Amino acid sequence: YWLALYSDCRSYNDGVEKHVYRQLPTLDARFLVEDGTVLRDARVGEVGEMHLSGPTVSPGYVCPDGRISLEHFGATRQVDGKKYLRTRDLLRLLPSGGLVYSGRADSLLKHGGAWVDADALQDATLAVRGVAQAAIVPCATGIDAFVVLQTQQHALNHKEQDENETNGDAHSPAPKRLCLGQIPSYRVLSEVRRVLPSGSGTRVHLRTELPFHPATSKIDRRALTAQLTSMADEMRRHSEKHDAIEMGHVQCFAIWLRLALTMLCVPQTVVCVILALLSGGFSSRIDHVLRLARLCYGCMLRLAFLPCFWLALTYVEHRCGPAPGWVASRLKRVHLPAQYSRWLPLVLAAWLPSFWVQTAGACACAYVGWARERDPWLVGGFGFLAALAGVVPASWVLFTAAVTTASISSRATEFLTFILSGIGLYYQVLPKMLSDDYGWLVEGQSGTRELPRSWDLMTRLRLPKWMGERSLVWDPKAAVVDQGNAWNLVYVEGDRGGRPWNSVGLVVNLHWKLAGSMRPFFDAIDNPVALPVQSVPCGPHGGDTGALSSTVERVCGVGGLQSIDSMQAITLTEALRNEFGKSLGVADVLRCASVSELLDVMSRETGAEDEPPKAKTCYRLWLCGLGPRMCTVDWMVSRPNGRLDVLALQRAVNRLVVRHPALRARNAPEQPMFDPTYMGAALWQLWCANGQAWTRSLLGRFASSSIFQTWPRSTIMPQSGETEVVLLRPTVAEITADARWEASDDARAFWAGSSLLNRKPPGSQMFHVCVIPIFNVRGKSPEADAVSVAAEYPSDEVKWYLYAILDHGYCDGPTGLPLFADLLRLYAEESGEPVGLSEPPNACAMLEHRLQRSLQTLPEALDANDDIFHDGLVGWGYRSGYQRFIRFDKHMMQLLRYACRDVLGCSVDVAWLTAIAASFFRLFPTLHRLNLFLVVTCRDKPAQEQMVGYLSSRKLLPLEVGDTRTLALLGLADMISTARRQRLWRRPRPFEKCDAIEINIVSAAAHGLPLGFKEVRCARSAPREWNRGTTSLMNLRLDQVSTDDWDFRLQSHDGSWGSEWGTHYAQALGSVIHDMAMRATDPVVPRA
């Protein structure tokens, strides 16, 4: 019967490109739909099962005994008195009369190019111990498995049936059903994944219940398919909403660009028309042509020199001028109002006469050349051109500029490239700058000024407004949250140095009744019994299995690879390289769920990192923050006992600076270009995300290249006295200043480190190291050197701290692990304990390479982890908000650790993401999807974990959850853990942060530091203010202070929810953490 259709050489797209078929005219075919108990023909647009009848349809197979059987062929059906063969093929009817294949009605489905029996998969899933219900639903993009795990109630319901099955039969097998209290739920889920086909097309949905058909009492696969369709529709609506937002911005910026170009050319056009009218009939046609040519020439001249005016005024605005003197002193008095500075170049270029434009343009280039390069030859060359601009045609001026400056300055080629690239950058950021200034004027500081509708152009010049009414609406009555019955909320207060303080933070405590009844449980958490390491059959790897299992257990703990977090993955990759000689990437380790999988990955070790750009002294990276956005990252490690050789430490610091070029970086005098290039990169990603066709043309390649070529540079200094880092040492007074404040040694060390930072040596040096001894000082001068005094005390009375600070814009928390690991190993060598070191990669070269790839003409880079998100546009959705500081009782954190280790089988950061998302769903129970805007560390490729550099980026992790009242907590954790392991996140679209939760989780480096050193963190103080604006639904920052102590800062949430919303969220967090540990198979949102 498979010869019943033919293709008409057309295609149809219903999410997947498919062929359009037509039936043979000589064949009787009907497409039927079961509508309850009624069998009817499918309508246009519906999917029906193909039924065939006619002489070409075989009656079946001939059996050995001569019978004709349809047992393995198909089944027949009587329709309107006629016999039809059921083909089990589903086809959709198109209005044109065509047919589109839509799958099978039976259990056969195609996955990965092979036919798979869905019933066999379902039976294999049900055979897994701990699975109560299962359903396999095929779809166009893969296989969706819906699973319900057994709970205590399931075990009680089946107890009697199991006893009946085994009663009276001594040889009958034991019942397969087993309560999840005996099998960790994550192991059941892992076993379910093993029986299903591997690959990203297989998705597991863990539910608390499955829908049943009311007539047949069987699992309703149509309802499950409808759920998947609803989730896909929700995703499509989300995409369409952001398409509309992006298109509104693109249209507004296009109008501003056209308006700016019109303003630039109107004065010249008006002058040309007036001259033509004054000449009257005395002008010939040739005169008109020449006048038109001069008009076009003047407009092109202004278009070319306008970016030069803007560059010069930008450097003036940032006070980047000549050497100190009378010019610099007068330059500092220049005041350009922030709301009008971007309009001034446009006014100058539009109204200055042509010969003055040439002179002013040459002077602007001369000034920028001095402010940027400090090259007198560039100033002299362009000054000479400015003097000739009034008598030499502009075309000759431009030609002479290139020849003259190239002959007298060694930096002319790079500077001219910067000037030409500045043209491309300027016309990309000009609409944004003008619209921002206009928005500031229209909105005002006292409120929004509504413009009359008749002013259509003026209205269209305003950017689309963030519609607050479209955001989530907080309804306390609909929220499913414990209203304080089990959780104690306390305001944070304390005393520091005799000064009492209080704040708006709160503490979530486990209720004393629950804490008392669960005391044995907490004792078991604090003293866990080591689980046996999963046995792996020794295959071709031989005896490496035992050694590898020991390494994994040492780094990851008893949870193994199931519960590894990002920091442990970095440590494990370094251990694999040192102990096994295998250079794996962090992503390779994270994707492994067992030791056997890790062995397989090690056996087919991946290739080396892509070759970075050739070594050079300057990199197009702006390493240091600017003013209030100064990006200072600090780390502290401690050594509980033992002496510290300070001279050896100084030599180790000098070698560390030589070893890592990023520590010798200095910023070029290009601070004014930081904001324009950052804004230009964000706008470029907006053009690409919106699918603008010109981004894939030659013009698009020039636009993206111009952003990269004008990006501020940082220079790697050669090793010299200028780059040496002198250890900062506190005085006795600085380590004893807080003796009246009963603080820990760690807090005193941080206090002393803060004092040392205030008196660090001035200059452009970015890296500083402090050595701080903490001990009880007796009878010493307050001005004495604390390090020298500590050498006189017994070693067991002194606790040493190393405090490192890096004012580095491309630096993050995980940078501290390789930095201190290398420093301490170098210190061990200097103090007589040789330790092998492998050469780290050039962080600046790799970062520049990643920046360049993020500005490709493609919408996204080829590797999602390498795709940098430039968030220069995320301030658009800014609205008022509130903040809270949430602290958790030790028992709450013990529950979280138990949940991630023994129940969910995931890392602590995944457990936090699960708790954060589930708490949000409980406050907004009608929500079916949620975007997590994550600050993640992408040190995925081999050797990147050794980098002293910033390889993190913003990634969006969308959660399409469907009905949160049937989705299990374990299912939500598995969804997040799978996405994290497979790196299914993506670069956010320009404005997706506005309706997402921004989360930054920083885990502590518990392993990987030699010589007994450990990372030290101190809990931060709670905020002192309620109000804080936000550009996202909620902004969270989590810092791990110790194993069971986390700083949970709700830095802001949408102000429309009210100031007390943070209290409800803290209550929801407490209840979710409790449920993750005790009832992980319960729904995310409990039923009322």
UniProtKB/TrEMBL annotation:
<feature type="transmembrane region" description="Helical">
    <location>
        <begin position="377"/>
        <end position="399"/>
    </location>
</feature>
<dbReference type="InterPro" id="IPR023213">
    <property type="entry name" value="CAT-like_dom_sf"/>
</dbReference>
<dbReference type="GO" id="GO:0044550">
    <property type="term" value="P:secondary metabolite biosynthetic process"/>
</dbReference>
<keyword id="KW-0812">Transmembrane</keyword>
<keyword id="KW-0472">Membrane</keyword>
<dbReference type="InterPro" id="IPR009081">
    <property type="entry name" value="PP-bd_ACP"/>
</dbReference>
<dbReference type="Pfam" id="PF00550">
    <property type="entry name" value="PP-binding"/>
</dbReference>
<feature type="transmembrane region" description="Helical">
    <location>
        <begin position="343"/>
        <end position="370"/>
    </location>
</feature>
<dbReference type="GO" id="GO:0005737">
    <property type="term" value="C:cytoplasm"/>
</dbReference>
<feature type="transmembrane region" description="Helical">
    <location>
        <begin position="255"/>
        <end position="278"/>
    </location>
</feature>
<dbReference type="GO" id="GO:0031177">
    <property type="term" value="F:phosphopantetheine binding"/>
</dbReference>
<dbReference type="GO" id="GO:0043041">
    <property type="term" value="P:amino acid activation for nonribosomal peptide biosynthetic process"/>
</dbReference>
<dbReference type="InterPro" id="IPR042099">
    <property type="entry name" value="ANL_N_sf"/>
</dbReference>
<keyword id="KW-1133">Transmembrane helix</keyword>
<protein>
    <recommendedName>
        <fullName>Carrier domain-containing protein</fullName>
    </recommendedName>
</protein>
<dbReference type="InterPro" id="IPR036736">
    <property type="entry name" value="ACP-like_sf"/>
</dbReference>
<feature type="domain" description="Carrier">
    <location>
        <begin position="564"/>
        <end position="600"/>
    </location>
</feature>
<feature type="transmembrane region" description="Helical">
    <location>
        <begin position="299"/>
        <end position="316"/>
    </location>
</feature>
